[in-house]
Write a structure and sequence with these properties.
heterodimer, A: alpha/beta, FAD/NAD(P)-binding domain, D-Amino Acid Oxidase, Chain A, domain 2, 8 helices, globular, B: about 260 residues, TIM Barrel, 9 helices
């Protein structure tokens, strides 16, 4: 049995470790604090269509491929772990407030129609029939039943359980480059998210931390019920999303570049709450249970950095906003690489052509 | 004559600015898109919000600008008081080793309009502290004059509020600011499409600063190229001297030639 060291215990590292162990590899996962990074604070949207933007068609295709894998992945994971994977099969609505926001959603709808992915445009009233909690500022939007969500924390717990049951040894200790080179047999897979750039010279400049602040609200007795679907919105041009969880909501997310800063700021929390309340006024009665910040592993084109770095090192990171969505596809591509296959050029780190690898 | 246009370089506080199109970075879908747009715009100076990035560890945007050889113009976006803006400008100077600052002090989130009282206060403090101050200001000729009087190196009036793409709502005010100014005038904010950038230059502005119009366009690279051409066209048209507006038609090839008027 061949040895594989997976560096990083977020959703990507855990998914790859689990799938590699299933494929017969002897896997050790290294992370000083597994499942504590950006995967832990993430919103858990599986929403490639409502994330689409002109110029990012490659990312949309990857997202759609991975979304297709999600139901099977979740089912298999729940069975393997003996606990729910957290998939929430309801869809997504996108709400607009001002006329500029509506124009922007119209542009998104036109773009998607041109790509052969029509979405349904709804008036404010029609949207409110789907989600009665939507406030009067919502003037129209889109319904995208195929964009789903997953409870990221349930997912991480299930992944760890399944990975360990499949034989993955989780070692809660940091990994340093060169450490594994001594025992010449093993392969190393770097999945350390925003921290990956310092782990291999071939990743310098390809992955950077993109801070995101995110809130968790819990429903209180008497408060307006949690929406059924994921609610995304544009509020005076600012995007905000509200993702349902059992007994609450996740509200995200800001975006800024502050190095490895994971402290939520007053302004970030205030902005998110202000915009979220315009969309779902009922949340005023919810509990503000948690404010956190995570570091998205940003790549230059927002597309993952996934492939071979050298004879013994593979990488799967740079998933930007889409790590949880792309986890099933990433794990499949990584297992393919381990078995001697190749990855699509769109994700291969070689596409940037500015590293020494 | 037109061959000299290239030599007519914009100079701000003794510093040559290679392109009259100054860009911002906010709103781009990703760094690759931003890179292609910046290259297509031909810009040599790009403004970056200091509160959105960490200058110490370097970020995607700062690394990108360095790689493209584009000078960074730090801005104080997000600041609401003079004291905040002064602090942010000083941190930017320390981190980026530049005395240039685009001074932004906005009154509220909904309009993002400059707060004139705080803006003037901050401008005065920063000029005294040795900064080269480029203030984002209202399209108010009086405020623009006062900013120049306290020593700002340029004035940057808005065409319309940030991100609205409503173009130049009060062209006459922009003309008055231009007529009065002894420092460069940069039209900052409100541009939605190329004709509006050209209009700014035709009104006599020395440069145009824009971000959203390019970064949020469906094809940012193409829009950046359009803006570059528009700024060049508007500048050339301004200096070519337009014909007077007439009420009635005037045939360009009169049936009976007369001696042209003396141009003395």
């Amino acid at each position: 049995m061949e040895d594989l060291v997976v560096v990083g215990g977020g959703v990507i590292g855990l998914s790859c470790a689990w799938r590699a162990a299933q494929a017969g590899w002897h896997v050790t996962l290294r992370d000083p604090a597994p499942a504590s990074g950006s995967s832990w604070v993430a919103g858990g949207m599986l929403a490639p269509v409502t994330e689409a933007w002109p110029g990012e068609e490659g990312l949309l295709e990857l997202g759609l491929s991975s979304l297709e894998l999600w139901p099977g992945f979740a089912e298999e994971l729940s069975a393997a772990a003996g606990q729910p994977a957290g998939l929430h099969p309801e869809g997504t609505v996108v709400a607009a407030t001002g006329s500029g926001d509506r124009a922007e959603l119209d542009a998104l709808a036109t773009h998607l129609a041109r790509l052969g992915r029509p979405v349904e445009r709804l008036s404010g009233r029609e949207l409110r029939r789907l989600e009665p909690g939507l406030g009067p500022d919502v003037r129209g939007g889109l319904s995208v039943p195929g964009d789903l969500s997953v409870d990221n924390r349930a997912l991480l717990a299930a992944l760890r359980a399944a990975a360990e049951k499949a034989g993955v040894a989780v070692v809660e200790r940091a990994w340093a480059p060169g450490e594994t080179a001594d025992d010449a047999a093993g392969t190393v897979l770097i999945c350390a998210g925003a921290h990956s750039a310092s782990l291999h010279p071939g990743l310098a400049g390809l992955v950077r931390p993109v801070k995101g602040e995110i809130l968790r609200l819990t429903h209180r007795h008497g408060a307006f019920p949690v929406p059924t679907r994921t609610v995304r919105a544009l509020v005076d041009g600012r995007p905000v999303y509200l993702v349902p969880r059992p007994g609450g909501l996740v509200v995200g997310a800001t975006q800024s570049e502050h190095g490895f800063d994971t402290e939520p700021t007053v302004g970030g929390v205030r902005d998110l709450l202000r915009d979220a309340e315009r969309i779902l006024p009922g949340i005023a009665e919810y509990t503000l249970a948690e404010a956190a910040a995570g570091l998205r592993p940003g790549s230059p084109d927002n597309v993952p950095v996934l492939g071979r770095l050298d004879g013994r090192t593979l990488v799967a990171t740079g998933h930007s906003r889409n790590g949880i969505l792309l986890a099933p596809l990433t794990a499949r591509l990584v297992v393919g690489l381990l078995e001697g296959g190749s990855v699509p050029a769109t994700v291969d780190p070689a596409r940037f052509g500015r590293t020494g690898t | 004559m037109h061959g000299n246009l290239a030599d007519e370089t914009l100079v701000v506080a003794g510093r040559k600015i290679g392109s009259r199109l100054i860009t911002g970075t906010g709103g781009a879908a990703n760094l690759e898109v931003l890179e292609r747009a910046l290259v297509a715009s031909g810009t040599t100076l790009t403004t970056v919000a200091m509160r959105r990035i960490d200058a110490r560890t370097g970020t995607g945007v700062l690394d990108l600008l360095r790689r493209l050889g584009i000078e960074v113009l730090p801005n104080t976006a997000g600041c609401r008081t003079a004291a905040e803006a002064v602090l942010t400008a000083r941190l930017a100077r320390e981190a980026l080793e530049t005395d240039l600052v685009k001074l932004e002090v906005v009154a509220d989130e909904r309009t993002l309009l400059p707060d004139p009282i705080e803006l003037l206060d901050a401008a005065e403090q920063l000029v005294d502290d040795g900064f080269t101050v480029l203030p984002y200001t209202n399209d108010d000729p009086v405020l623009a004059r006062k900013l120049e009087q306290v020593g700002c190196a340029a004035v940057m009036p808005l065409g319309s509020p940030i991100g609205t793409g409503l173009g130049i709502r009060n062209p006459h005010n922009i003309e008055m600011i231009v007529a009065d100014a002894g420092v460069p005038v940069v039209l900052d904010a409100g541009i939605g499409t190329a004709s509006e950038a050209a209009q700014a230059m035709e009104l006599g502005c020395d440069a145009v600063l824009l971000a959203t119009a390019v970064t949020r366009a469906a094809d940012p690279e193409r829009m950046a190229h359009a803006m570059r051409l528009a700024v060049e066209a508007g500048y050339a048209a301004r200096h070519a001297g337009r014909i007077p507006r007439r009420y009635w038609a005037q045939a360009s090839s009169p049936e009976t030639d007369r001696e042209p008027p003396e141009t003395g």
